[in-house]
Amino acid sequence: MPRISTYSSLIPRATLPDFSIELGMRAPTLAISGVADILRIRSQSFHTFSTGTPTMKIIRYNDPANDIRYAAQKDDGSSLEIDGCIFGDHTVTDKVADVHKLLAPVDPPTILCIGLNYLFHAEEGGLPKPKWPILFMKSPATLQHPGDPIEVPTHLKSEEVDYECELAVVIGRKCKNVSKADALDYVLGYTCGHDVSARDWQIKYGGSQWCKGKNFDTFCPLGPCLVTTDEIPNPNALKIKTVLNGKVMQDWNTDDMIFDVPTLIEFLSGSTTLMPGTVILTGTPHGVGLARKPPVYLKDGDSVTIDIEGIGQLTNPVINEP
Fold first, then answer.
1. Do 203 and 77 belong to one domain?
2. Are residues 68 and 182 in the same domain?
3. Is the whole-model pTM more than 0.85?
4. Residue 142's domain spans which residues?
5. Angstrom distance (rounded) from CA 50 to CA 68
6. Which of 307, 321, 312 is nearest to 149 (CA)?
7. Cα 228 to Cα 42: distance, rounded to the nearest angstrom
8. Total domain count for the chain?
9. How far apart (Å, rounded) are the C-alpha atoms in residues 153 and 170?
10. Which of 55, 219, 263, 310 could form a disulfide with 196 if both were Cys (CB 3.0 to 4.6 A apart)?
11. Closest CA to 274 of 197, 183, 151, 150
């Protein structure tokens, strides 16, 4: 029997749960080869909505041999290995994943970042609401894994390293000139993002460019998992917060975005190709360290957590660059 991505034609509708195995155009499909696979997938403990839609949290990890693998995380905390590419055909197996080290859920080819995208954040900085999304970029070399340290630069020294909790959007399919109405069809899922920012290099020493202050090594932690769009149908209705050494510093909701996620994808894909795995950091709410009186910046020995509803917590210690 050929591999298929939906099983509605295999058995009578009355015997099916009220969902399709196909994740639709918003995510790669779970490949199914027969009724045995249907029964296996139905038996696995994936979380479902009241509508019956199957959902998945994907982790990326090193196994004991240091090979990089993906797995589907279950409600009990265990994970099942995924065969294939999460950006194409893939199958959730019955094999329990042996997670030696948790990695950032994707290794992005590009990290696109949006500045001043929360209304209250713009207001706390005394800045006008932008007419168009403000775009800057981070190098893929800024990527950091859950639990690994954020390094305060010491060679090109910074004394104003700030935190920024952000919803990170992961593009699942190559796209260009996407309409707002179709934008979420191209999203694989969402994860927690931390747009660590050296304010002195961003504002004082960067020659009016943000990139230097945003592009130091370790300045883009992502994780702990990638949550598919089936589990988060509306990315602009999520609680989001930053916790620094146990104290809540940012606590808001993604519904305060000036440009919502579909609008950002429409804008970023305009006359521009977005490749699978592209990460979009969608901006941060008010409460950043720079705006506090006195300012609060990250320092050696700190621990900072990004917490987003429906995704989880991304925690990283802070150290001085060795």
1. no
2. no
3. no
4. 111-320
5. 34
6. 321
7. 18
8. 2
9. 28
10. 219
11. 183
